[in-house]
Amino acid sequence: MSPFPVTLSRHILEEGQRRADIAGELSTLIAQLGFTAKTLAREMRRAALIGELGLVGEKNATGDAQKKLDVYSNETVVDAFSATGLVAAIASEELEEIQHIKCKGEGRYILCTDPLDGSSNTDINGALGTIFGFYRRKKRDCDPTPDEVLRPGSELVLAGYVLYSTSTMLVYTAGHGVHGFTLDADIGEFRCRIATCAARSGEKVSAQT
Questions:
Q1: pLDDT of 2-20, one tens digit each?
Q2: What is the DSSP string of the chain?
């Protein structure tokens, strides 16, 4: 196997060459997922040192007690995908209502997310996650209706999760296979998991990989 596993950036470029639907907007969303995951992973590593653990004294839309990291994660996700110009609305577990984005009619996607799943684990250094799913809009105005957001999972065009634990993993699918990457914090890159890289290169993978 090559000593240089495929990075998320290279993977996006290669997928764009193979698949027309990945070549443009979805590639931007996947790249932004990687950037957002690295930002959140960094904050979680140092949360105990900068006073970001504990409750904020409020409840989220589902009635769960909000942690400081819940609020930070939600703000980070909203800001990151608002900046792409591709997302017209965001439905988050931390928001009472759908967050509409001023996209000037260009936002073709709706993001549904739990920015920090398992936040009750923050004070015990347990595993946490970010869950995401994107729908392609059926209309092009800037005010998505609830019907555009409340749709079956079969209509998702991009979905996956990030797991923050002993390592940070990003896993996604855009309808053609599932792709997994592990963050190498020393170089700041998501790299293809060994089993996935080997499978793509045609090499045999042991059950232990």
A1: 556 789 999 998 888 887 7
A2: --SSPPBHHHHHHHHHHH-TTIIIIIHHHHHHHHHHHHHHHHHHHHGGGTT--SEEEEE-TTSPEEEHHHHHHHHHHHHHHHTTS-EEEEEETT-SS-EE---TT---EEEEEEEEETGGGGGGT--EEEEEEEEE-SS-SS---HHHHS--GGGEEEEEEEEESSSEEEEEESSS-EEEEEEETTTTEEEE-HHHHHHHHT----TT-
| Annotated domain spans of the chain | 8-201
CATH number of 8-201: 3.30.540.10
Per-residue pLDDT of 92-112, as tens digits, reads 998 888 888 876 567 889 999
